[in-house]
Amino acid sequence: MNLTSPFALALGAIVALSLLGVPVGHAMIGGSVLYLYLKGMDMGAAAEQLLNGTYSSFLLLAIPLFILAAAIMSNGSILDRLLRFCNAIVGRFPGGLAQVNVLQSVVFASMSGSALADAAGSGKLMQEMMTREKKYTPEFAAALSAVSSVIGPILPPSIPLVLYALVSGTSIGYLFIGGVLPGLLLGGVQMGLIWWLAKRRNFPLEAPVRLREMPRITREAFPALMLPVVLLGCLYSGITTPTEAAGVAAAYALLISAALYGMRWSDFYDSLLASARMSISIGMLIAGALVFNYVITSENIPAALSRALGGLQLTPMAFLLLVNALLLLLGAFLEGSTIILVILPVLLPTATALGIDPVHFGVMAVLNIMIGLVTPPYGLLLFMMMKIADVPLGALLRETWPFLLVMVAALALVTAWPDFVLVLPRLAGYTG
Known about the structure:
The chain is mainly α. The chain has one domain. The chain contains 22 helices and no strands. The longest helix has 34 residues, at 265-298. The protein is globular, with a radius of gyration of 22 Å.
């Protein structure tokens, strides 16, 4: 590539702006405008692509609605009830509180859809619980809170899968249900590793919950646990579109929080503020990606890459392995949403040409990108938990590596066995 070409200079501008601390979305818009200027094209095309992309996609409305539902359900009293429920289920097993950390991430997935939100909310609370009375070291608790947080975005509702549906045109309903088994697999391998570590390190056991208390604990958590049932029921019954289902989820979260869990007006106001901030952040990233994707299309990069990969005569499995290696590498440096919005659209034409199912490809890619959040040197969850737990990065990484290995093994299974992802969508009527 000519380093003085408009495209190369635009890429350099994006990297430079990002390194200076400019948000990635703004950096992509700035670099794209520079490209249009250097090419002598109408710079108003940037605004045109931004407006056309954001206002023509009804699916985009699902993102702030899912975020609002998560913010409402993150009310402290709801989290307490869910954690008591998780403790009642797995607290008695070896590494009891560590097992609870993983299970709560599976449960909290229905209220989050975002790994960073999971880590900042329930992950922070679990960090405090695990290190209380020195039951677990701060670095182990921080590593576990980081790796367990990546489970949420695989399970529905998943904001990364919504973004993939946006760039690929794949059914969000089938993507959601396709992520169920891989998400549960990720939780299962983490819990299995904790069991093994508990035997080696003599992790403490939690006091078993009495059987007669189980109905009360389950009853208190039941309304919150029903959120994914309500969401998926709306999607697969055909009653609502995905965006309308997100609205129903937000309304249900508000209803049970206000009527059953005593949510105050101040809590609701805080939820609105938190969801607005996160929605604006994601919205700017999407806007930047839409403009930069126009630049990529203008340079005919997808077609050129497709021809280059076609010349290699890769089999579908070889292509998936190459994609996994690329995404794991990029995930160590880039934010996940950027990869989904900028990199995956370039790879999708080749995947389609090779006959790779778009639901399988999307779930595999999102699983890979989520693992990147805990992959050094730039894993965002590592830095977040390092700050929350106040532990050195080196100590945190030592505790993270075993979990990374088992998660990559789970990714290998999902990559090599498409039916593991597709069995539930096909039962729901998917014909891909």
